[in-house]
Design goal:
Chain A: InterPro entries: AA_ABC_transptr_permease_3TM, ABC_transp_permease_HisMQ, MetI-like, MetI-like_sf. Chain A: Keywords: Amino-acid transport, Cell inner membrane, Cell membrane, Membrane, Transmembrane, Transmembrane helix, Transport. Chain A: It comes from Litchfieldella anticariensis (strain DSM 16096 / CECT 5854 / CIP 108499 / LMG 22089 / FP35). Chain A: Belongs to the binding-protein-dependent transport system permease family. HisMQ subfamily. Chain A: One of its GO terms (biological process) is amino acid transport. The structure holds three protein chains of three kinds. Chain A is mostly helical. Chain A is about 80% helix and about 0% strand. Chain A has a single domain (about 20-185), classed as Orthogonal Bundle (MetI-like fold), CATH 1.10.3720. Chain A is built from eight helices and no strands. Chain B folds into two domains: about 25-110 and about 215-250, D-Maltodextrin-Binding Protein, domain 2 (3-Layer(aba) Sandwich); about 115-210, Periplasmic binding protein-like II (D-Maltodextrin-Binding Protein, domain 2), CATH 3.40.190. Chain B is built from ten helices and twelve strands. Chain B has helices at about 1-15, 50-60, 75-80, 95-100, 145-150, 165-175, 185-190, 210, 225-240, 245-250; strands at about 25-30, 40, 45-50, 65-70, 85-90, 105, 115-120, 135-140, 155-160, 180, 200-205, 220. Helix content of chain B is about 40%, strand content about 20%. Chain B has a five-stranded mixed beta sheet with strand order 4-1-5-12-6. By secondary structure, chain B is α/β, with parallel strands linked by helices. Chain C has a single domain, classed as MetI-like fold (Orthogonal Bundle). Chain C has helices at about 1-15, 20-55, 60-75, 80-90, 100-105, 110-130, 135-145, 150-180, 190-200, 205-235. By secondary structure, chain C is mostly helical. The chains are: A mainly alpha, B alpha/beta, C mainly alpha. Chains in contact: A-B, A-C, B-C. The interface of A and B includes residues 6, 38, 71, 98 and 101 of A.
C-alpha cells in the first residue's frame, strides 16, 4: 500500500475542491458563452464589438496571467467600487472575494470566451428552416430558443463543449499557484514536506485521468442523445 | 435570454459572498505558510507556529475572535490593502519601504537574517566576489529578495521561490549554491532537520536598516490606528505576564538566535 | 495631440515601477519565453511526425504505447507534468553525479523537457488526425504509380497532412505560448516571472500584470498573422476559384 504520510484526507478534499471548482466554472462559462454568442450574433454593433473584444483579449493572454490579474487586482478593483459607493451614496458594504470564488470567476470568465466561439459556430449551423417552422407554429421567441434552437445547437456544440471542458479541467490546476488548496496544491505541499514528489504527483495525475475518462464517457452518451433523429438513417 | 442574464447576475452576486460590515470584534490575520517554525501546517492541515500561537494569545488577551487566512507571500500586502483580512502576522519585517504601504505594531520578535550553504561548500564569506556566478535562493518579495537583488543581482543568478519550502527542496536537490533566509527559519528547515548537511556562512545580518528594518511587526492598514494600539497594549501585557516567554520557549528553546 | 503627449509624459514621469531595472527584467523575460516556447515547439514537432505515423500503424505494439503517451500527456495538467519532471528527477538515485545533472540542474531544461513532451503529445494527435483524413484517391494514385510506402509518405501523405494540420497547429502554438507562463512556478524568470517579481516588489498588480498581458497579446497576434499568412500561401489551392 502507498504511504501518504497522513496527507490522504487532505488530498481527497483537494480533489473535491478541484471537481467543484471545475463544475461551477463550467456553469458560469456556459452562461457567459451563451451571452457572448448572442452578443456576437446581435445586430447591435456595440454588443457585437463588446463580444469580439472580450473573446479576443481573453484568448490572447495566458490563463495564469489573467488569473493573477483578476485575483490580485480584482479585490482592489471591487474595493474601489465599494469605496465609491460609500463616498457618493453612503452605502457601506464590503464584498469579500475568497480564493475559491475568485477561481470560479476567473476560470468561468476565461472559458466563457472559448464557449462563446463554440456556441456561435453551433448556432450558425442550425438549419434556419427549423426556426421558421417553430415560428410558423406560433411559438414565442423564447419558446423557439428553448425547444428548437437550443437542442439543435447543442448537437453541433457538444464536441467543442467537451473539448473546452477537458481544457478547463486541466486549467483548474493553476489555482494552486494563487493559493487555493486544490489537489495539486495539497500534493505539492505534501511532496515538499515528505520529499516524495513522485508518490503525490502521480496520484494527482491519475485522478485527473480518471475524471477525464469519466467525462469522455459522459459526453459520448450526451452526444448520442442529441443525435437522436440524425443518426444512421442519413 | 433575459432570464439567463438575471440568473447569472444573481449567481455571481451569491458566489461573491455576503456583504460584511467593518468592525473589529473579529480580526482576520493573513499568513503565509509554510515558514517553519514561525508558521506552518501539520500534515492534517492544522496551522501552528510561533506567530500563530502568539497571535491567538493576543486575541485571547483582547477578547476578540481570531481567524487565520492563508495567503501567498507575494500577495500578502495587497491582500491586506484590499481587505481580505485585517492584519498580517507572518514574520513580516518592519522597514521603511513597507511603512509606506502599511501600519506596523511594535516589533514582537527580532531575528537576524543569515546565509546558509551545504556543509561542503567552499564559500567562506558572502561577498559579491565570492558569489560570482553562483545560484542564490530567496523567497520572492521578501526583504532578503530585495537585498540580494540589489547587491548580488548583477553577479549571481537569483532564483526566487514562492515559499521557503520550495527553496529548501531545491537546495536539497543541489540546484542552489547558497540561500538567504530569516535565521530561525533556516535553522529549523536546514540546520535542525538535516543535521550536518548545512552550515551558516558568514555573520548574522541585521544591517543596513534600509533592508533589514526593526524586527517583525504585525501589519495593519494605515487608517486602523486604533486596532494597532490595542494590539500593542496586549503585546506589552503578554510580555509582562510571561505568556510571551512561554510561547517563545515552545519554539526556540534555549539555543535561540536572539 | 500635444496635450495627449504632455499627458503621457506626465504619466510616465510619475511612475516608479517601470524603471530601467524592471524593464530589464521584462526584456529578459521576453527573451526567455520566446526561447523556451520556440525550442519546445521545434523539438516537439520533430518528435511528433514519427509518432503520428506510428500512432496510425496497424501494429499494436507500436500504436498502443504512443496512444498511452498522448493520452496521459493530454489528460493531465502541464503544471503536474512540470512538477513531476522538475522535482521528481531529483529523487532518482545518484542523478547528481551523472552528466544529466548538468542539464537538469538549471530550471530551464526541466521546463523545456516538460513543455516539449506536452506539445509533442498534442501535435502527434493533430498530425494523426490530418494523416487519417488523407483522401483515399491520393493514396490509391500513389500506389498505382508504384511508390514505396516511404516515398508515398514523403511525397504524398505528409505534405498534404501538414497543410490540413496548419490551422490546428497554429492553435497549438498559441496554446504553448500561453501555457509557458507556468515556467515562473519553477523560478524561471520568463515574462510572467518578471511580472510576478515586479508585483511582489511594488505591490502593483494592475501595472505588473496588465503590462505583461499586453506583451502576450502582441505575441499572440504575431503568431496569428504568421499562420494566416502561411495558410494563405499553402492552402491557396483549397480556396474556391476566384471569379
Amino acid at each position: 500500500m502507498i504511504d501518504l504520510h497522513g496527507y490522504g484526507p487532505r488530498l481527497l478534499e483537494g480533489a473535491l475542491i478541484t471537481i467543484e471548482l471545475a463544475i461551477l466554472s463550467l456553469i458560469l462559462a456556459v452562461v457567459l458563452g451563451l451571452l457572448t454568442a448572442s452578443a456576437k450574433m446581435s445586430r447591435n454593433w456595440l454588443l457585437h464589438r463588446l463580444g469580439t473584444l472580450y473573446t479576443t483579449i481573453i484568448r490572447g493572454v495566458p490563463d495564469l496571467v489573467l488569473m493573477m490579474l483578476l485575483f490580485f487586482g480584482g479585490q482592489i478593483g471591487i474595493n474601489m467600487f465599494t469605496d465609491m459607493l460609500y463616498a457618493h451614496y453612503d452605502i457601506d458594504i464590503f464584498i469579500n472575494v475568497n480564493e475559491f470564488v475568485a477561481g470560479v470567476i476567473t476560470i468561468g470568465l476565461i472559458f466563457g470566451a472559448y464557449m462563446g466561439e463554440t456556441f456561435r459556430g453551433a448556432f450558425l449551423a442550425v438549419d434556419s428552416g427549423q426556426i421558421e417552422a417553430g415560428r410558423a407554429y406560433g411559438m414565442s421567441h423564447w419558446m423557439v430558443f428553448r425547444r428548437v434552437r437550443f437542442p439543435l445547437m447543442m448537437r453541433h456544440a457538444l464536441p467543442g463543449l467537451s473539448n473546452n471542458w477537458m481544457v478547463l479541467l486541466k486549467t483548474t490546476a493553476l489555482v494552486s499557484v494563487i493559493g487555493l488548496s486544490d489537489m495539486v496544491r495539497v500534493a505539492s505541499e505534501a511532496s515538499k514536506a515528505t520529499r516524495e514528489p513522485f508518490t503525490f504527483m502521480i496520484i494527482v495525475a491519475a485522478i485527473y485521468l480518471l475524471i477525464a475518462s469519466f467525462s469522455e464517457w459522459g459526453f459520448a452518451r450526451l452526444q448520442k442523445r442529441y443525435n437522436v433523429g440524425f443518426g444512421e438513417s442519413h | 435570454m433575459k432570464k439567463l442574464l438575471i440568473v447569472s447576475i444573481l449567481g455571481t452576486a451569491l458566489l461573491a459572498g455576503t456583504a460584511q460590515a467593518r468592525d473589529y470584534e473579529e480580526v482576520r490575520f493573513g499568513v503565509d505558510v509554510p515558514y517553519e517554525p514561525m508558521e506552518y501546517r501539520t500534515p492534517d492541515g492544522e496551522l501552528t507556529g510561533f506567530d500563530i500561537d502568539l497571535g491567538n494569545a493576543l486575541c485571547a488577551e483582547m477578547n476578540i475572535e481570531c481567524e487565520w487566512i492563508v495567503q501567498g507571500w507575494d500577495g500578502i500586502i495587497p491582500g491586506l490593502l484590499s481587505r481580505k483580512y485585517d492584519a498580517i502576522m507572518s514574520s513580516m519585517t518592519i522597514n521603511d519601504e513597507r511603512r509606506e504601504q502599511v501600519l506596523f505594531s511594535d516589533p514582537y520578535f527580532t531575528p537576524p537574517s543569515a546565509w546558509f550553504a551545504p556543509a561542503e561548500s567552499e564559500i567562506e564569506m558572502p561577498y559579491p566576489q565570492t558569489l560570482e556566478g553562483k545560484t542564490i535562493g530567496v523567497q520572492r518579495g521578501t526583504l532578503q529578495d530585495n537585498y540580494v537583488t540589489d547587491n548580488f543581482g548583477d553577479v549571481a543568478d537569483v532564483n526566487r521561490y514562492a515559499t521557503a519550502d520550495d527553496m529548501v527542496l531545491d537546495m536539497d536537490a543541489g540546484r542552489l549554491d547558497i540561500v538567504f533566509l530569516d535565521f530561525p527559519v533556516g535553522k529549523a528547515t536546514l540546520l535542525d532537520s538535516e543535521a550536518g548537511n548545512y552550515k551558516v556562512v558568514g555573520e548574522m545580518i541585521t544591517e543596513p536598516k534600509k533592508y533589514f528594518g526593526d524586527g517583525f511587526g504585525i501589519a495593519f492598514r494605515q487608517r486602523d490606528e486604533e486596532l494597532a494600539a490595542k494590539f500593542n497594549e496586549a503585546l506589552a501585557t503578554l510580555r509582562e505576564n510571561g505568556t510571551y516567554d512561554d510561547i517563545y520557549n515552545r519554539y526556540f528553546g534555549n539555543n535561540n538566535a536572539e | 495631440m500635444e496635450a495627449l503627449i504632455a499627458n503621457i509624459t506626465e504619466l510616465l514621469s510619475d511612475n516608479t515601477i517601470f524603471n530601467m531595472q524592471t524593464l530589464g527584467y521584462y526584456g529578459q523575460g521576453l527573451a526567455t519565453t520566446v526561447q523556451l516556447v520556440f525550442l519546445a515547439l521545434v523539438i516537439g514537432l520533430v518528435l511528433a511526425v514519427p509518432l503520428a505515423i506510428g500512432r496510425g500503424s496497424k501494429r499494436k505494439w507500436i500504436k498502443l504505447p504512443i496512444f498511452f503517451y498522448t493520452y496521459v500527456f493530454r489528460g493531465t495538467p502541464l503544471l503536474v507534468q512540470l512538477y513531476l519532471i522538475y522535482y521528481g528527477v531529483v529523487f532518482v538515485e545518484g542523478i547528481q553525479d551523472t552528466w544529466l545533472w548538468l542539464i537538469l540542474e538549471k530550471p530551464f531544461y526541466p521546463a523545456l523537457i516538460a513543455f516539449t513532451l506536452n506539445t509533442a503529445a498534442y501535435t502527434t494527435e493533430i498530425f494523426h488526425g490530418a494523416i487519417k483524413a488523407t483522401p483515399r484517391g491520393e493514396i490509391e494514385a500513389a500506389r498505382a504509380y508504384g511508390m514505396s510506402w516511404g516515398l508515398m509518405m514523403r511525397r504524398i501523405v505528409l505534405p498534404s497532412a501538414f497543410r490540413r494540420a496548419l490551422p490546428s497547429y497554429g492553435n497549438e502554438v498559441i496554446f504553448m505560448l500561453h501555457a509557458s507562463a507556468i515556467a515562473s512556478v519553477v523560478t524561471i524568470m520568463d515574462l510572467t516571472g518578471a511580472a510576478r517579481f515586479v508585483y511582489a516588489r511594488y505591490y502593483a498588480p494592475f501595472e505588473a500584470f496588465l503590462f505583461v498581458a499586453a506583451i502576450y497579446l502582441c505575441l499572440t497576434f504575431a503568431i496569428l498573422f504568421l499562420f494566416r499568412f502561411l495558410e494563405k500561401r499553402l492552402l491557396a489551392h483549397l480556396k474556391p476559384a476566384s471569379q
